[in-house]
Amino acid sequence: MQAEVPVQDNRTASDTAAADRITGLDALELGPRRSKAALGGRVWRSAWPKLLAIAIVILAWQIVVWAQWKPEYVLPGPATVFGDLGTLITTGDFWDGVRLTMLRAVTGFALAVLIGTIVGAAVSRFAPLRAAIGSLITGLQTMPSIMWFPLAILLFQISESAIMFVVIIGAAPSVANGLISGIDYVPRTWLRVGQVLGMKGFAKYRHLILPASLPSFISGLKQGWAFSWRSLMAGELLVIVPGALSIGVRMQQARDLSESSLVISFIIVVLVIGILIDVLFNAADNALRKRWGLTGN
Prior knowledge:
Helices cover about 80% and strands about 0% of the residues. It is mainly α. Helix 5 packs across helix 7, helix 10 runs parallel beside helix 11 (about 245-255) and helix 10 (about 215-240) runs antiparallel to helix 12 (about 260-290).
């Protein structure tokens, strides 16, 4: 019994040392914790180029107005537009329109993600299916969304379904291609390790292939959102559903009434929404890159 005690102690010490080394490696990969004071500096470093770009655009806009290239009732200045925009965002009708547009956007994009993920997984899994429709998916991705609206109106008349049809068919190919590309670039070594561990069928996709393809998949989601957002804005301008006063409909009404200031205000609203969604996708992408140790300190 006395001879076994040192062996047990040596094992415990070895295990402790191994755990310390692993913990140290994890800490090295994640990097040092950043203080709250540094957070303000990071926010400022990220924000000031955007603020400078906005200031340059507004200045150029004002210079064009001063040059009287167009009459002010056609091209109003920044002060007029931002004043009208400030009044606009205080009205309930404006937020009702934003809510309707975002509901369409989220619904259409969610359906596109569902369809694109299923199609992408199937195409990457079955070689004959890839040979049959792989190029078709890329072709659909390059199609201008405006080309689908005549068919959508013939199929669904002037309705929400016509808009959803174009949004989905515009975004789903990008999602599918993102997933296909991600699966194609999963390291072969990982697949062999999964095979050794006995991963097959759904478990192989759930625990190995899909997590490994996430970086490319998120890029596909981001591109799919861009297509769906542009398709939705075109749809709201072309397919005016009675009683549905969305952002696009209100912008079209402002154009019919020659209210240039409101038209530009709605353009700014659409731009801001697009930028905010892009920030969310970038945050998700950065979090994933940090989780995988692909970012610097």
